[in-house]
Specification:
The protein is built from 26 helices and 17 strands. The protein has 716 residues and is an alpha+beta fold. The chain has 2 domains: 367 residues, Cytochrome P450 (Cytochrome p450), CATH 1.10.630.10; 230 residues, no CATH class. The strands form 6 sheets. It has a 4-stranded mixed beta sheet with strand order 1-2-7-4. It has a 4-stranded mixed beta sheet with strand order 14-15-16-17, sandwiched between helices. Strands 3-11-8 form a 3-stranded antiparallel beta sheet. Helix 13 packs across helix 18. It is globular.
Length: 716
C-alpha cells in the first residue's frame, strides 16, 4: 500500500512539474530543437569530451541557429537554452535581461565569486560605478607608458625565438597582459615576463578555466561533492595564490568584494586581452598581404624610429584596428554569453521567450551570420570594418552588448594595439613550418576554456625584419617628398607611392584581352607618374594656361577624358559583377536623388543582407587645384573626400540599398569604399573562377581604364 501511494505521489508530482513548465515545452516546440534529448541530462551529452569537443558543439549550435533565422533550442538537464545569433533579437534580450543565468553561472562563481562580470544585477550595478572611473579615456591615456614598456619587454624576449622554428606565442603574450593588468589595475608589479617563478599563477588560471568550462555544461559535474573530488581543490589554491600576490585596490570595497574584483581583473582582464592579441598574431602570420598593410601603416605613423607608442598614435592606426576587430569577429575570446529571462520577451521574429528560459548569445555564430556579414563571413577581411557603420550594432559583440557590456573594451583595444605595434615593427610573423599554403586559411582548431583559445597555443614563427633596405627606401622617399618643389609635386609623389597607383604596371600587355596600352598612352601615363614634361606650354580652350607637365587636362571641365574614364570605370565594375553571376544595369531608372540624378549602377539581384548593391563611381584629379591642399598632405585624400560627398548626396539610398561610392584618383589612389568593394568583388571572382589571381586582374583593369582615359583628357 505504501509503495502504491508513493508511486501515485510521484506520478502526481511529475504531472504537476510538467504542467508548471508547459510554457517552456511549448517554446521548445516552436523553436527548432536539437535531436536526441535524453532523460535527466537533456542534450548535455553533446558536451561530453574534451574542451575542444565542447567548442565544436558550441560552433555547431551557432551554425544551426544561423540556418534557422538565428534561433535554436536545446536542454541542459532541466534547463531550456535558446542559442541566439540574430542581432535584432540579441539587442532586445540584452536590454531586457541584465542578469546572467543563475543555473550556469553559479558554477563559475565557485572560483570568481560575485565579481563584476558574473554578479547578479543588484551587485553588478554599484560595482560598475566604482570601477568606471578607472576605464575613463583620460585615465587610460595615462596608462600608455605601462602598455608600451611591458609590450617592449615582450618584444625583447621574443628575440630568442627569431629565426628559429615553431613556437607557441601564447606564453609571451599572456605574461605581457598579466603584468600589464597587475601593474595598471592592481598597482602590483608582478613581472612574470622576466621572473618565471610567478608563472604558476598563469598556470593556475589555465587550470581553473579548463575545469570550469567543463563543469558549466556537464551536469554530472554540478554536484559539489563530485566536482571537488574531480578538480582536486585546484581552485582554492589558485584563489589564495592570487590574493596573496595582489596587494590592495582603491577604497570602496569590503574585504570579500576586494577578493572578488581582484579575480575579475586578473582572470578576465588578462586572459581576454591575451587571447585577442594571440589570435591577431596568428592570423597576420597566415595573411602576409594584410601584415604588409599593417606594417606600411606603422611606417607612416612611426617612420623608421623605435620611439614609444603614445595615446595620440592609436587613433591613426585605423587599419590595425580593423585587423584586430576582424580577429575578434572570427575568434571572439568569449564565444558565448548567457542571460536569464525573468519576464516574457517578444522577439522581432514574433517568438515569445518565457520566464525561466536561458538565452545563450552565441557570439561565434553571430559573427558568422551571412545575413549580416555576407557570403564571405568565414573569410578574414579587415576592410569590412572600414566601410562605415555596420548595418546593425549588435552584429559585432566581442565585448557583449548594451548596458552590461564589458567595461574594459577600450582598455583591451589600447593594450592590444600597443603590443602589436611593438611586435610588428620588429618582427615578421610567419606560419608554422611545413603547413601547406592551402591549409593556412582554414579555420583554426579551438577549444573552450571559458575563453576560446587555439588548441596549439597559437603556434607560429618569427623573423627579425631587415629594416635597413626599408629604412633606406623610407629615407629617400621621405627626402623626395620633403624636398618637393611644389604642392603638386608633393601630391604626385604621395599618390604614386600608393599600391593601387601601380596596378596597371603589373598587367600583361596583350591586345587580345584589352590590357595593351598603345605607345602614346603608355608614354603619357609614365610621364605623368614620373612628373616629367609631356607637352609645350599652351592655352587650353577653356582659357587656362597649360604648363609643360600637362596636368590641367586631367581636371578641365571641357575635357572629354573625364566622361571616358567615368564610363570605363563603371563598365569594368558591371562586367566584374556579371562574371560572378550578379547582373547589373547602369544608370538605373526608379532610384534617384532629390535633384533627379541617378547613381551609376545597380545590381538586379540582392548583393548581401537581402539588399541590392548600388554604386556611384567617380575619378577625381589628384592634382586639381581644389584638391591640392589635401592631396599634398595625405595620399588618397581626394578620393576619400569624393566618397564622403557621394554618401551625403545619396544618403536617402542607404536605407533600402547597399550604397558603395567608388572613388579613385587620376594618379592612382583609391578611397576606402572603393578598396572595400573591390575586395568583396575580388573574393567572389576567386570563389567563382578558382583562380586566386582573379582579384589582381580586376584591379589591373580598373587601373588601365584610368590610364587610357588620360590620353583622351590630354588630347582634348
Amino acid at each position: 500500500m505504501i509503495w502504491q501511494l508513493l508511486l501515485v505521489a510521484l506520478a502526481l508530482g511529475a504531472a504537476y512539474y510538467r504542467w508548471s513548465r508547459r510554457r517552456l515545452y511549448k517554446l521548445a516546440a516552436e523553436i527548432p530543437c536539437l535531436p536526441d534529448s535524453y532523460p535527466v541530462i537533456g542534450h548535455a551529452h553533446i558536451f561530453a569530451g574534451s574542451n575542444e569537443d565542447i567548442m565544436q558543439q558550441l560552433q555547431n549550435l551557432g551554425r544551426i541557429s544561423n540556418d534557422h533565422d538565428g534561433l535554436t533550442s536545446f536542454w541542459v538537464a532541466n534547463r531550456l537554452l535558446v542559442s541566439m545569433t540574430d542581432p535584432k533579437a540579441i539587442e532586445v534580450v540584452s536590454k531586457a535581461c541584465l542578469d546572467k543565468d543563475e543555473f550556469l553561472i553559479k558554477y563559475i562563481r565557485t572560483a570568481i565569486g560575485n565579481g563584476s562580470i558574473f554578479a547578479p544585477v543588484n551587485i553588478w550595478h554599484p560595482r560598475r560605478k566604482i570601477n568606471a572611473p578607472f576605464f575613463s579615456r583620460k585615465n587610460l591615456d595615462q596608462l600608455m607608458p605601462v602598455f608600451d614598456a611591458k609590450s617592449s619587454i615582450m618584444a625583447d624576449l621574443l628575440r630568442a625565438e627569431a629565426g628559429g622554428g615553431d613556437f607557441p606565442i601564447w606564453r609571451y603574450v599572456t605574461t605581457f597582459t598579466f603584468d600589464t593588468v597587475c601593474e595598471t589595475a592592481l598597482n602590483v608589479p608582478i613581472n612574470t615576463q622576466k621572473d618565471s617563478e610567478h608563472y604558476y599563477l598563469l598556470n593556475a588560471i589555465d587550470g581553473c578555466t579548463q575545469v570550469l568550462a567543463k563543469r558549466v555544461l556537464q551536469p554530472w559535474l554540478h554536484p559539489d561533492i563530485v566536482f571537488k573530488k574531480n578538480n582536486n581543490n585546484e581552485l582554492s589554491h589558485f584563489i589564495e595564490a592570487v590574493i596573496q600576490s595582489s596587494g590592495g585596490l582603491e577604497k570602496g570595497y569590503s574585504d570579500m568584494e576586494l577578493r572578488e574584483e581582484l579575480m575579475v581583473f586578473m582572470v578576465a582582464g588578462s586572459d581576454t586581452s591575451a587571447t585577442a592579441v594571440s589570435y591577431t598574431t596568428v592570423l597576420l602570420s597566415r595573411y602576409p598581404d594584410v601584415q604588409d598593410k599593417v606594417y606600411q601603416e606603422l611606417q607612416e605613423v612611426f617612420g623608421e624610429s623605435d620611439r614609444a607608442v603614445t595615446p595620440e598614435d592609436l587613433p591613426k592606426l585605423t587599419y590595425l584596428e580593423a585587423v584586430i576587430k576582424e580577429s575578434l569577429r572570427l575568434y571572439p575570446p568569449v564565444p558565448v554569453v548567457v542571460r536569464e529571462v525573468h519576464e516574457d520577451i517578444l522577439l522581432p521574429s514574433g517568438t515569445t521567450l518565457v520566464v525561466e528560459t536561458t538565452v545563450m548569445f552565441n557570439i561565434w555564430g553571430t559573427h558568422r551570420n551571412t545575413a549580416y556579414w555576407g557570403r564571405d563571413a568565414e573569410e578574414f577581411r579587415p576592410e569590412r570594418f572600414l566601410q562605415g557603420p555596420l548595418p546593425h550594432p549588435a552584429m559585432f559583440v566581442p565585448f557583449s552588448y548594451s548596458v552590461r557590456n564589458c567595461l574594459g573594451a577600450t582598455y583591451a583595444m589600447m593594450s592590444a594595439k600597443t603590443a602589436l605595434v611593438n611586435l610588428i615593427r620588429r618582427y615578421r610573423l610567419l606560419p608554422p613550418a611545413g603547413v601547406r599554403a592551402a591549409d593556412l586559411q582554414r579555420p583554426l582548431p579551438v577549444k573552450f576554456d571559458i575563453m576560446m583559445k587555439a588548441v596549439d597555443n597559437f603556434t607560429l614563427r618569427i623573423e627579425e625584419r631587415n629594416r635597413k633596405p626599408l629604412m633606406m627606401q623610407a629615407k629617400w622617399q621621405k627626402a623626395l617628398i620633403d624636398n618637393a618643389q611644389s604642392p603638386a609635386e608633393r601630391a604626385r609623389l604621395l599618390a604614386v607611392s600608393e599600391p593601387e597607383s601601380g596596378l596597371w604596371l603589373h598587367a600583361l600587355p596583350s591586345p587580345n584581352i584589352g590590357t595593351l596600352l598603345e605607345r602614346t598612352t603608355l608614354a603619357l601615363a609614365t610621364s605623368l607618374r614620373l612628373g616629367v614634361k609631356t607637352n609645350e606650354p599652351h592655352r587650353c580652350r577653356c582659357g587656362s594656361i597649360v604648363d609643360e607637365l600637362g596636368h590641367h587636362g586631367l581636371s578641365c571641365q571641357r575635357s572629354a577624358g573625364r566622361i571616358s574614364r567615368h564610363a570605363s570605370l563603371n563598365d569594368v565594375i558591371r562586367r566584374a559583377l556579371a562574371s560572378v553571376s550578379v547582373p547589373a544595369i547602369l544608370e538605373p531608372n526608379g532610384i534617384a536623388r532629390d535633384d533627379g540624378k541617378r547613381p551609376d549602377g545597380m545590381t538586379l539581384i540582392p548583393w548581401r543582407l537581402g539588399r541590392t548593391l548600388v554604386w556611384d563611381a567617380t575619378c577625381v584629379d589628384t592634382l586639381a587645384p581644389s584638391h591640392l591642399q589635401a592631396t599634398s598632405v595625405k595620399a588618397g585624400a581626394a578620393a576619400t573626400t569624393a566618397e564622403q560627398n557621394k554618401r551625403r548626396k545619396y544618403a536617402v539610398l542607404s536605407e533600402g540599398y547597399i550604397f558603395a561610392p567608388f572613388g579613385v584618383e587620376t594618379l592612382g589612389p583609391w578611397g576606402p569604399s572603393a578598396k572595400s568593394l573591390f575586395k568583396e568583388i575580388s573574393q567572389r571572382l576567386i570563389d567563382t573562377s578558382g583562380d586566386r589571381r582573379a582579384g589582381s586582374y580586376l584591379g589591373q583593369r580598373i587601373s588601365l581604364a584610368i590610364q587610357k582615359a588620360k590620353l583622351l583628357a590630354r588630347i582634348s
